[in-house]
Amino acid sequence: MRNASEFFANSEPMTAQQVVSDLNRALSGTWVAVFREHEEELTRMFAAYGDRAYGVYIQKLMAPLSDMAAEVGIAIKPGFSRADSIENWGPPEERERCIWYALHKQDGALIGTAVLQFFHSHTQLHLPEAPRFFALEETERDAIIEAISQADVRLQPGNLAKYRHADEEEALERWEYATETGLGDYIRTTNGQKGGGYLDHALTTWGRNGWELVSVVPQDGQLVGFFKRKAGA
């Protein structure tokens, strides 16, 4: 395991934002290596159990990060708990799950929450984008979920999808469909302002995987998006 001093600044007072910044530095140097080290095992697991394989990967990813944080006096419970996560966004090829971890100092004081954005495919064992952390002041479950549901909390300008030219595809007669229940979260922001490219980001993520938005329906306070694409795309 690499030394915590390579990534973590042992400074006081330690804030959630500082811890997350350090976690992201450590994550950038480990996430690919952990995936490659366990890829054979994860591939077998995905074939047998589907996306449960990603939970195992996250457990393996978080263990060394938790150990490194402990070296500088920050306690992060390692592992993966589905109860401490939500997955509401993205097409099957680029699903986004947010997993949250409480950040405690050595004296037990809670300084905030680190949220891991984990991007993965439901169609194959594949990580389409690097995982990353962001910090929240919120520490209660309901408040965390409310914060995560704000587009400008989860998505920073540098992380928004870029438009790109799609190659012309052969016309097919068969179609497949999918729904997105978190579409409304892309037009909710902390300051109440619309725009910012968040909804464009969401639709572009679906579109670059061949999905076309065909309808949006309000349901129980949410906006449900209905997408279609040619089968076999």
Verbal overview:
- This protein has two domains: 145 residues, no CATH class; 56 residues, no CATH class.
- Helices cover 31% and strands 24% of the residues.
- It has seven helices and eight strands, in the order ααααβββββααβαββ.
- Strands 1, 2, 3, 4 and 5 form a five-stranded antiparallel β-sheet that branches. Strands 6-8-7 form a three-stranded antiparallel β-sheet, with helices on one face.
- A hairpin with a 5-residue loop joins strand 2 and strand 3.
- Helix 3 crosses helix 4.
The description of the largest β-sheet is: 5 strands, antiparallel
Described by its quaternary structure, the protein is single chain
Radius of gyration: 19 Å
Uncertain segments are 165-169
- End-to-end gap: 41 Å
What average pLDDT do the residues reach? 88
Sheet/helix structural class: alpha+beta
- Total domain units: 2
- Global outline: globular
Pfam families: DUF6022
InterPro entries: DUF6022 (IPR046064)
What are the salient characteristics of this protein?
three-stranded antiparallel β-sheet; 31% helix; 7 helices; alpha+beta; 233 residues; five-stranded antiparallel β-sheet; 2 domains; globular
Compact overview of the structure:
The protein has about 230 residues and is of the alpha+beta class. Helix content is about 30%, strand content about 25%.
